[in-house]
Structure formats: structure tokens, C-alpha cells
Amino acid sequence: MKIKLISITKPVDVDLKNYSPEEYTTYIARVSNPSNQTNLDTAPKLLKYCLDQGHYSVYDMVDFTIEITTSLAIAAQILRHRSANFQQFSQRYAEAEGFEVVELRLQGVKNKQGSAELYQNKENIKAVELHIIRSFELYNTLIKDGVSRETARFVLPTCTTTRLYVKNSIRNWLAYLNQRLHNHTQKEHRLIAEKVRDIMIVEFPVICGTFDNFKTAFDEKFM
Length: 223
Hints:
Shape: elongated
Distance between the termini: 27 Å
Order of helices and strands: EHHEHEEEHHEHHH
Number of helices: 8
Strand content: 15-25%
Mean pLDDT: 92
Largest sheet: 4 strands, antiparallel
Structural class: alpha+beta
Low-confidence stretches: none
């Protein structure tokens, strides 16, 4: 799993070119108060007020794009967040690039769709590793024998890696984190959400500070 910040909204107006994305959010928020629109001294207070009062629309004006490398299984979960815009690696156009190591865990008891502690049967763990390797060997054999990429890919496991770009507004990234930082989220996906959170803490420190760096998100919703 890899996460990388690719782009972020920056103002190009000559009067705003030195504004950070977070400061730009404040400028937009003060559209009804033009005489005070460039006041950055009270920007942190305004951002906190908007969040506390549920005035989330101001956070639709800035977005950022991240590159995610993950498994097909987790990518399918990410793609369910329909507020985002996506561009994903095509296995019809290019050959599969590899796979992520599978961490087998026991079935969860309280969380019926989740997992618990690590699975310890070494024989079956080894069998999974061999299955993945043989799947890729078969895939490569089919490709070399002229089978189309779009049909050969059906023999690959869902741990096969894919790469996608995800663009979302601050508002919708917060909604994403509200769900995916929670301990009921699959571990592999939660680790991605934690990386997104880390990016937001750097780029939007005032907004993230309102949530105490999302420390409560693991056990409860923060929005």
C-alpha cells in the first residue's frame, strides 16, 4: 500500500497567490463580508466556527488528489465513495503489476463483516502464498501465449495491486475519514485512511485541529 499527494487547489488570483489552501477556504467563506475577506488573523476561529456549526459548504471549494496503490479488493471499497472522482489503472490496457501480501485474520465475532486476531495455521498460510504465485504464473503464461489482457486478468486474485487517483473536496475527504478511520473498517483500508488523515493534518492543520487530529474517530463518528 502506498499513498501520495498529487495535487491540491491553489488560488491563481494575483492578490491571493500566496494563500495556502486553508487560507483560501477562509477567503471563500467570507464571500458575504468582502471588507473582511482577506483577514487571516481570525481565519482559524472562522474555520472552527464553520465546522462546529455544520457549515460544510465552504469546504467544497478546495480539493486535493491522491495516488493510491492498493489491492483490487480494497480499491473496490474506495470506489464506493461516489462523491470522489477516480482514474484507475486498466488491466485491459496494461499487464498486472504485482500483488499485495495477504494477512489472514480470524473472523470477527461482534463485527460480522470484519476480522480479529491473526490466523496462525502455517500450512494454510503457505498454501495461500503458493496459490497467489501460481495465479500470476498462469496469467503470465496466458499473456505470452497471446491471450488478451482483458480475459487473462480473470485468473488473478483480488490481492492483485492496482493504482488509482482519487480527487475529492475537503468536505468529502472529511466524510470519507469519518467512515474509514473507524475500527469497523477493514484494516487494509483503514491504513489508507490514516495516510489520508496525515496528509490533511499537514495541509489543513486548523481544520484537522478541530477534530483533535481525529483521535476519536477510531471509536465514534466525529462529524
